[in-house]
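Hello again, I could really use a second opinion on something today. For a while now I've been wondering how a particular protein folds. Please have a think about how the structure follows from the sequence. Here's the protein in full, and shout if anything looks odd to you:

***
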Amino acid sequence: MAATAVRYLRAAGSAASAPAAPGAAAPDAPPDSPGTAARPVLRAVREDERAPVDRNEFRRVLGHFASGVTVVTAPGDAADPAPAGFACQSFASLSLDPPLVAFMVARTSTTWPRIARAGVFCVNVLGAGQAGLCRGFAVSGADKFAGVRHTPAPVSGSPLLAGVPAWIDCTIQAVHTGGDHLVVVGRVDALGTDEAAAAAGPLLFHRGAFGEFRAHGH
């Protein structure tokens, strides 16, 4: 399990707490324990500040940036053997050497703590015609894997969804705080494509709607 993810789960409200200094109280110690410094509240805007832009306007403008769509999955554990997964639009490649990717997840997500416990994940890149699959993983509280065919990813064992054009199998390397979201960095352990599925093109999301890619001249 990734040490950063473990620290995240132990820290109340902190995405990636630094290891305790020698002589300091354990992470689970009460705030008033000797040797324990109060954790700072992680905020993008201070209590005495106003948000610089209206949140609805922020969403409207940023919606003009078209993106691909993924489903991030993780294996279950002893506490909850069912696999975990959620639809994720905020995904990107990060580094070639070493091979790193990143995804962003809301700090209020109920799926993220399960992925953090697993310490691993698989990014399933969705293709054209898989909007329904995305919608299924965007809901909360339902059995997202009901009727969804999948096999274990080769290294992490995370669900690799059938029919996706590409997949990236990862170990969590770091977790950073980004306002009301977390930036999760994964080291790539394995990856692959399904050229037959990729021939249909990617699933795109733009201004609140799904779409498909069309190359110029076609």
Q: What stands out?
A: The longest strand covers residues 166-178. The chain has five helices and twelve strands.
